[in-house]
Amino acid sequence: MSHSVQDLSRALWPELPAGTSLLHGAVVRPPYWSYENGQYLGAELQTVNQQAALQVPGVVACVRMGNFLGVLAVQAEQAQQGAALLDARWATPVAANQAALPANEDVAATLSTPDQSYEWQSAAEHQETAWARACYHDKQLYVWAHTQRPAALLIELQALSGLPSEQIHLQDIAGNQADAYDCAMDAAVMAFGRPQAVQVRASHSADTIRLSVFKGTAEQNDLNAHLRATRWQLNTLSGARPSLAAILCGQPGLPSSGPAVKNDYFSAPTPNYDGAAASSDPDSLAQATIFAQESQFDQDCHSLGLDPLAARLEQVSSPQGRDLLQRVAEQSDWSEPLPAHQGPLRKGRGLAYSHIVEHVPGQAAREQWSAWAVDVSVDTRQGTLSIDKLTIGHDSTELGNAEQAPESAPALADRLGRWAQQLLNNGVGKGDEGSSDRPVRGTADKPAVQLVKRESAVGQPLAWNQGVELPAAAAIANAIFNASGIRLTSAPFSEQSLALGYQADKTGSSKKRKAWWGALAAVATGTVLSALPWRPAIAPVGQVDTSIFSELAIERGRLVAIAGDCMVCHTAEGGTPNAGGLGLDTPFGTIYTTNITPDKETGIGSWSYKAFERAMREGIHQDGRHLYPAFPYTAFAKISDEDMQSLYAYLMTQEPVKSEVPETKLPFPMNMRPLVAGWNLLFHRDPNAYVPDPTQTVQWNRGAYLVNSSGHCAACHSPRNMLGAEKGGEANFLAGGFADNWEAPALNSLSKAPIPWTEQELYQYLRTGYSPRHGVAAGPMGPVVAGLAELPESDVRAMAHYLSSLNPVESEQEQTHAAQAALLEQNSRSNKEVMLMPGENLFNGACAVCHDPRGGPVLFGARPSLALNSNLHSEHPDNTIQVLMHGITRPAQPALGSMPGFKNSMNDEQMEDLLNYMRARFAPDKPAWTGLKDKIATIREQKGHL
Q1: Cβ atoms < 10 Å from Cβ of 891
Q2: Is the pLDDT of residue 574 over 80?
Q3: Which of 10, 336, 342, 929 has an alpha carbon 20 to 30 Å from 749's alpha carbon atom?
Q4: C-alpha distances in Å from residue 583, one per residue of 668, 857, 879
Q5: How far apart are CA 908 and CA 914, in angstroms?
Q6: What is the pLDDT of residue 5?
Q7: Which among 243, 273, 259, 252 has a CA at the least distance from the CA of 183?
Q8: Phi then psi for 549, rounded to 5 degrees?
Q9: Backbone dihedral angles phi then psi of residue 880, each to the nearest 5 degrees
Q10: End-to-end Cα, the chain, rounded Å
Q11: Which pLDDT score is estimated for 404?
C-alpha cells in the first residue's frame, strides 16, 4: 500500500490549509461494548435527540455513523457539554455486568471478589494525553497523530474515506508519546467531508490497567490444577483490535493489529465491559498482562514450593521459549545460592518470561520471546532496594533492518538498564518519602547487564525491539518478593511501595511499645529544643566542596526548589533570582526574604549542610536566630533527607550573588525573635520528615508528600489563627486562607466551586493553569503552576490524586458534571433580571469580547466560563476585584493569554456596579457581596500580583 507518512517529532502541529478552522470533538461511547472474532457485540444505538446538545453555545454539529456518536464545537469544553446533553437510547441485549461472566455458574460464582489484583500505570512520566487531528481538504485526508500501528491505521482510513492511498497523509506526531490510534480514527470520522479540521483528545479514564485474579478450588499440591482453576478479568478491551471508531461505524473486514500475549499457563483475561474504557495503547496492555500473569505464576510456585524456572520449563510449549529460558538461567547463575543475609540487607533473584504474537496488516505475524533474570538487594530497615544484575534474553522471528547499523551491545544494555531503573521510579525528582541517612550520591548505581543473544540462520542480527522489555517489571517484582516476602502488585514501582509494605508488616505488641516510647522521646526532645529562646550558632565552613554533588543530585535539587517555589519568594521584583529582598506583607508587618545564593557574606555560602537542614526543619538561622514562620519551615520539615540533601547541592552550585537585603523591622513585640521559640512550642512540634501512610497507595503518599512538604500548600490554603499559625484540626486543613492579598480557596469539602473538582480537573489546572470548569490560575498561583510545569507528570498527577481524596467525587456524580455546567451556562444567558442592572453595559464593553457565553470564536488564549468560575461563587470578592483591577499580565502558561486590568479606566463606582452585575448574573444562587466599596478602595492601592 502506498501512503505518505511524515515524522514531525520536533515540530508543533502543522498549519491548517488556508481558510480551514479548527473544531473540537467529543465522543459518546456505548454503555458497554464487546468485540469478538471480528464482530461488535455491544450496545446498539437506537435513537438520538440532539436538540439539547445543539443549544449549547459553540456546538456546531452532532455526528452519527452506526453506533459512533460525537459532538463538534468551537471549544473542547463546549463539545463535552454537548455530548453530555445528547439523549441517546441504546439497546442492550446482554446486561453489562454479565457480559464478561462465563456460562458455567459454578465458575461464575467465584468471580465476585478477586483473590488478587494487579495494576499497571499506563500513563508513564513522559506521556501526555493522547490526541489527534484530522482534516479533509481538496479531496485529501490529513491525519496528525502518534501511533505504534501506522499500517493498520492507514488501512482503516482508506476503508473509511474510500480514497486511494496516495490521497491519505498520516503524519506522526512522535513528540506526543501516548498512542493516539483511537483518537486518530475518531477525528477522521468527524472531519471527513467537512470543511473544518477536527481535534480529539482522549480522556484519562483508563490510565490504570487492572487485571483481577479469581482462584477456583484445586488440589492443594497440583500446579496444573491451580492454573486451570484460575480466571482473569481485565478492565479494558483487548489491544489487538481495530479502532473503536471503525468497530462502532460497522466497517467490515478490518484486521486486528497490535501485540497479543501468548501465555502457556493461564487462560487469556476476559474483558469486563461494565464501565470499561478501551485501551488505545496495546503495548501497555501487553506489559500489564505479562506483569500480572508472570507475578501470579511466581506466587503460585512459591505457595507450592516449586522452582519457578523448572515450573516454567514444564509449562512453556514453544521450543524457542524453553531454549531462551534455559540460556538466561545458565548465564544468570540461577542455580547458584544467593549470598547470606548481612544485617538488614537481603538478596533476591527473580525470573519472568514473555511470548507475544504481533499482527501486522499485510505481513506474516511476528513472534517474540523474552526472558529476564534479575538480582536485587533490599534493605529491610530502610525499605529501599537496588538492582544488582540483569540477565536478558530475546528471540524473534523478525530480522533486523539490513540497511541500518544494529544497536550496539553496550547501547542496548544501557537502554535496558535504564528501563529497569525507570520501573523503580528512581528518576530525577522522585525522592524517598521515608527517612534516609544516606548522603548525596555521586552517581546512580547502574546494574550489570548481561545480554543473551542468538544469531539468525542467515547470519543477520535479530531485531531487538520493544518486546524485549515486557518481562522486566514481573522479574523485578519476583526478585523483590524472593528477597523480602513482600509482593508488589502495582507497577511501575517505587522504593516507597516497599517501605509501605514493611510498615504494614510490622505488627506485634513489643514493636508497638517500642514505637510508642520512641515517639514520646522524640516529642519530648523536640519540645525542649523548640522552647529554647536562643540556639547555638553552627560554625561556618570555609569552602563547600561542590565536586561531591552529582549532576543527578543537582537536578533533583532543582526540581525540589521548583516544587517549593524558592525563587518566587526569594527574588525581588526585577532582582536576581534567589538573591532575596522581596517584601512579604503579613498581618504583623513586612518581612523581607533572604539571599539564598551561595554568597559567603550575604547569602548561605558559608552554611554547612547541618546548618541548612536545621533552618529548613526547625526554622533556626545558622547564627542561632529564630526565623519568622513566614518562611514555611513547618512544611519544609517534611522534606525527605535525600531531597533535602539534593536541594542543598543545587543551591550551593548556583552562581553566588552579593546582595544585601532590607532588614525586617516588625513592631513590638513581634520584633522579639526569641518569642518565636514559644510559637514553635505551640505550633511546630514535629520537625521530622514525612512518614508514608501504609494504609494508602503509593500515588496517594507521593501526592501527600509533595503537597505537605516542599509544596507547602497549606501555608496559603489553610486558615490561620491570631498568632499566624495554621489552624489545627482536620476541618481546617486546606479549608481556605489568604496569601499576598489573594484568597486561596478551600481544597477540602468546604470548596465553593460550583462544579466539584475531580482528580482530572485538578491535574489539568495544576499542569496547565486552566480548568474549563473552574477558571485560570492567577495571582500567587500563576508562578506555582509555571513551576509545576517542570515537574514530572507523575508527580503532578500524584498531587491531584491526593487533593481529590480530600473532597472525593463519586463516579456517578462526575458523569453529571458536563450537564451541570451546561445548565449553569444556560442560566447565565437567560437571566433577564440582570439586564437592567447598570453593570450590563460595562460588562458588554469590557468583558464580553472574551467572556460572552453566547459562543463565537476564541479570540485570545483561553476563554474561561464566568458561570463556572470559582471566584465569582466565593464568599469573598477579593480575587475578582484583583483580576478586574490589575488584570493578568503574566499568565501561568503563554497559551492562556493575558487579561488587561481596568484600574485606570473604571472608577470605584463603576467597578462596584460591574462586580454586583457579575455576581448576580453568574452566581445567582449566592448572596450579594457586602463591603465592596472598602475592598475596592483597598485593592486599588495595592500593586497587584504580576
Answers
A1: 21
A2: yes
A3: 929
A4: 19, 41, 20
A5: 10
A6: 38
A7: 243
A8: -90, 125
A9: -65, -40
A10: 56
A11: 43
Alpha-carbon distances, residue 737 vs 368, 387, 432, 876 (angstroms): 57, 45, 30, 11
List the grid coordinates of 164.
Answer: 486511494
Chain centroid to Cα 388, Å, comes to 29
Contact residues for 340 (Cβ-Cβ < 8 A; gap 6+): none
Q: What number of CA atoms fall less than 13 Å from residue 248's CA on the CB side?
A: 26
Q: What is the pLDDT of residue 662?
A: 92
Distance, CA of 708 to CA of 329 (rounded, Å): 46
| Per-residue pLDDT at 205 exceeds 50 | no
For residue 368, give the nearest of 330, 327, 396, 328 by alpha carbon: 396
Q: Which 3 state secondary structure label does DSSP give 534?
A: coil
Contacts of 307 (CB under 8 A, 6+ apart): 301
Is the model's pLDDT at 428 over the cut of 90? no
C-alpha cell at 269: 483475561
Helix/strand/coil for 788:
helix
> The C-alpha cell of 178 is what?
501516548
- pTM for the structure as a whole: 0.63
State the pLDDT at residue 511. Answer: 40
**pLDDT (tens digit per residue) in 360-400:** 776 777 888 999 999 988 876 666 678 889 999 988 886 54
3-state secondary structure of 729: coil
Amino acid sitting at position 569? C
Q: For residue range 37-74, what is the model confidence (pLDDT) as tens digits?
A: 778 877 889 988 888 788 777 889 999 999 999 999 98
Q: Which amino acid is at 265?
A: Y
User: Which residue carries 501526555 as its cell?
Assistant: 128
- State the cell numbers at 624: 542561632
Q: Which residue has the higher pLDDT, 109 or 886?
A: 886
Cα-based distances in Å from 479 to 115, 259, 307, 330, 389: 22, 26, 13, 17, 11
pLDDT tens digit sequence for 703-720: 999 999 999 999 999 999
Provide the percentage of residues in the chain whose pLDDT is more than 90.
34
pLDDT tier, 177 (very low <50, low <70, confident <90, very high otherwise): low
Tell whether the torsion through CA atoms of 481, 482, 484 and 485 is positive or negative: positive
Q: Which three cell numbers stand for residue 782?
A: 500563576
- In whole angstroms, give the CA distance from residue 552 to residue 572: 29
Scanning 546-608, the segments in alpha helix (DSSP H) are 551-563, 566-569
Of the candidates 672, 691, 655, the residue with the CA atom closest to the CA atom of residue 519: 691
- DSSP states of 456-515 as a string? -TTSPBBP--GGGGTTHHHHHHHHHHHHHS----EES--HHHHHHHHHHH---HHHHHHH
Q: How far is CA 134 from CA 52, 185, 212, 263, in A?
A: 26, 9, 37, 38
* Structure confidence at residue 256 (pLDDT): 77
Tell me how far the alpha carbon of residue 305 is from its chain's centroid.
39
Under 8 Å CB-to-CB from 135, ≥6 apart: which residues? 16, 17, 20, 141, 142, 143, 191, 196, 197, 198
pLDDT at 449 over 80: yes
pLDDT (average), residues 918-923: 92
Question: Can you tell me the distance from the alpha carbon of 96 to that of 916, in angstroms, rounded to the nearest whole number?
Answer: 50
Calculate helix-pair angle for 675-683, 509-531, nearest 10 degrees: 160
Grid cell for residue 401: 533492518
Beta-strand runs (E) in 12-125: 22-28, 35-36, 39-40, 44-49, 59-65, 68-73, 87-91, 116-121
Please name the residues in contact with 391: beta carbons below 8 A apart, sequence gap of 6 or more: 328, 331, 332, 372, 373, 374, 450, 452
Taking the C-alpha atoms of residue 769 and residue 747, their distance in angstroms, rounded to an integer, is 16
Q: 424, 354, 356: which is closest to 392 by C-alpha?
A: 354
Residue linked to cell 466497517: 251
| Helix, coil or strand: residue 342 | strand
> pLDDT above 70 covers what percent of the chain?
80
Q: Residue 864: pLDDT band by 50, 70, 90 thresholds?
A: confident
Helices (H), 382-494: 409-423, 472-484
551 versus 255: the higher-pLDDT residue is 551
Distance CA 648, CA 826 (A): 53
Task: Report which of 239, 478, 469, 477 is spatially closest to residue 368, judged by C-alpha positions.
Answer: 469
